[in-house]
Amino acid sequence: MKSQATTIEEYMEQLPAERQKPMQDLRTTILENLPKGFEETISYGIPTFKLHGNLVHYAAYKNHIGFYPGAAGIEIFKDKLARYKLSKGTVQFPIDEPIPFDLIREIVLFRVNQNQLKAQAKKRKDWKL
User: Fold this and answer.
1) What's the Cα-to-Cα distance from 21 to each of 60, 73, 86, rounded to whole Å?
2) Phi and psi at residue 67, in whole multiples of 5°?
């Protein structure tokens, strides 16, 4: 059994060879759509991007790639995600199908905007105290 990764690179290296490219492509897609100030880390044992709090998580499994944009990220895009297995904050992309990178971009940009708006609202509230 492999030890739990503490960096994204370790996580990627521990994946089976056939999972490494799609996971790296997913990572690149996310990175290309993030503004300055984000953090990339391992949280809950899986790769995570943070920007004013959790932004998205992603992980490789035996039969799917999990993408975790949170409940709002699923709800807003539920029509476009309808063909995939969904839960409140998760979508599962089957491993034997292409990952919908254009949709991933849309979801990431939505989540960036959502977190930035929340951070701005918090600043305004804190300033008034």
Assistant:
1) 11, 24, 23
2) -130, 130
CA 19, 20, 24, 25 dihedral sign is negative
**CA geometry: angle at 89 spanning 88 and 91, to 5°?**
100
Tell me the per-residue pLDDT of 42-89, one tens digit each, with 9 for 90 and over: 999 999 999 999 999 999 999 999 999 999 999 999 999 999 999 999
**27 within 8 A of 58, measured Cβ to Cβ:** yes
Show the tokens assigned to 65: 């790639």
DSSP result, 91-129? EEEETTS---HHHHHHHHHHHHHHHHHHHHHHHHHHHH-
Question: 97-129, pLDDT tens digit by residue?
Answer: 999 999 999 999 999 999 999 988 887 776 654
> What is d(CA 41, CA 31) in angstroms, rounded to the nearest whole number?
12
Q: Answer yes or no: are the C-beta atoms of 63 and 95 closer than 8 Å.
A: yes
State residue 1's pLDDT score: 34
Q: Which two tokens stand for residue 107?
A: 């979801």
**Beta carbons within 10 angstroms of residue 39's beta carbon:** 12
